[in-house]
Write a structure and sequence with these properties.
The protein is an alpha/beta fold. It has one domain: Glycogen Phosphorylase B (Rossmann fold), CATH 3.40.50.2000. Helices cover 44% and strands 13% of the residues. The chain is globular.
Length: 183
């Protein structure tokens, strides 16, 4: 995964970043789409209320997932979007450009929390648990829920980046070398 991130890094796009006139490290990138976060009105409303509190201190850029938009409309929670920079869903390369320039990421996406780490950005993970345990154990990413999202977002940020948790980005080359040497 890290190999692919490094390979694609030169292709990241900054169109959305530039169009929104954002400044580096001055906003949070938000993704929110998991059923356990958006399909329950009370939980979604609490999450959106926490995001509104956060947006008073840091801009939040929110490429809104169709499932999330549908639930927000269905539950009449549109008022909570007023202080967020809500944009249409975007492609991977523009998303990675936004991650690269963000201050932090708030997400319930499995892959994005890892890609945030690759970009040296901390992630607040809106999930009860994650498969990327090493990022939690290193205290780089934090798990949060609808009741502590604000608090977890603004926890201590002066942490050293935990280097080399995913190798040096040459795993593919090393695998090919091993296979070729076995022929």
């Amino acid at each position: 995964m890290y190999d692919l991130y490094l390979m694609l890094q030169k292709s990241f796009k900054y169109d959305i970043y530039n169009k929104l006139n954002l400044k580096e490290n001055d906003y949070i990138l938000l993704t929110l789409h998991r059923d356990f976060n958006v399909d329950n009105k009370e939980k979604l409303e609490k999450i959106l209320a926490e995001l509104n509190k956060i947006s008073k201190e840091k801009k939040i850029v929110f490429p809104i997932h169709p499932r999330t938009r549908k639930r927000i409309n269905e539950f009449n929670l549109e008022k909570y979007l007023e202080n967020l920079i809500v944009i249409e869903p975007i492609d991977f390369l523009n998303l990675m450009g936004l991650v690269k320039m963000a201050w932090k990421v708030i997400t319930d996406s499995g892959g994005l929390q890892k890609e945030a780490y690759f970009a040296k950005k901390r992630a607040v993970v809106l999930m009860p648990d994650t498969n990327w345990r090493e990022l939690i154990e290193e205290n780089w990413n934090v798990l949060a829920n609808e009741n502590d999202l604000y608090e977890k977002t603004f926890e201590e940020n002066n942490m050293n980046y935990p280097e080399s948790m995913n190798g040096d980005g040459n795993a593919g080359k090393k695998i090919i070398d091993i296979l070729l040497n076995q022929l």
